[in-house]
Amino acid sequence: MFFRGLLQKALEERFTTQTSTWIECAAFGLVHLFHHGLIIGALGFHFLPKSAFLWFCLMTTVAYLFAWLRKGGGSLYLAMISHSAFNFMMGTCIFLALWPPSAALALRLRYASAKLSPLRLGEIQDIRC
């Protein structure tokens, strides 16, 4: 709502629609560097330039798609639904990459073969898929 609502309208008062859309999309891409490319840890900030550049380009492009949906639909709702769907799919892909179904199956099989109670499940140290 902020980027395609408040920011977009404020920028359109000063710039053309096309220019304000690109500024808004670039701002969206920069803010999303905290998801990938800019790491904050105990030792401070770490910047990963290649990763950050790729992520910035991807998020700016996605933001442009959301802006296009907002303009085409005349409402924020289509962009909001699309953004939610995008976030859901990204979360699902990340979850499946980190914990593929084969790992869950291996855990279940090992659990069943070891006949461990759920309280003793933590005793399984090594799961190889």
Question: How do you describe this structure in short?
Answer:
The chain folds into 2 domains: about 1-100, no CATH class; about 100-129, no CATH class. The protein contains 5 helices and 2 strands; from the N terminus they run ααββααα.
Task: Describe the sheet with the most strands.
Answer: 2 strands, antiparallel
Flag low-confidence runs: 124-129
How would you state the average pLDDT, rounded? Answer: 80
Fraction of residues in β-strands: 5-15%
| Series of H and E elements | HHEEHHH
Descriptive key words:
single chain, 129 residues, mainly alpha, two-stranded antiparallel sheet, 2 strands, flat
Provide a descriptive summary of the structure in words.
- This protein has five helices and two strands.
- With about 130 residues, the chain is mainly alpha-helical.
- The chain folds into two domains: about 1-100, no CATH class; about 100-129, no CATH class.
- Strands 1-2 form a two-stranded antiparallel sheet.
- A hairpin with a 2-residue loop joins strand 1 (about 40) and strand 2 (about 45).
- Helix 3 runs antiparallel to helix 4 (about 75-100).
- The model is unreliable at about 125-129 (pLDDT under 50).
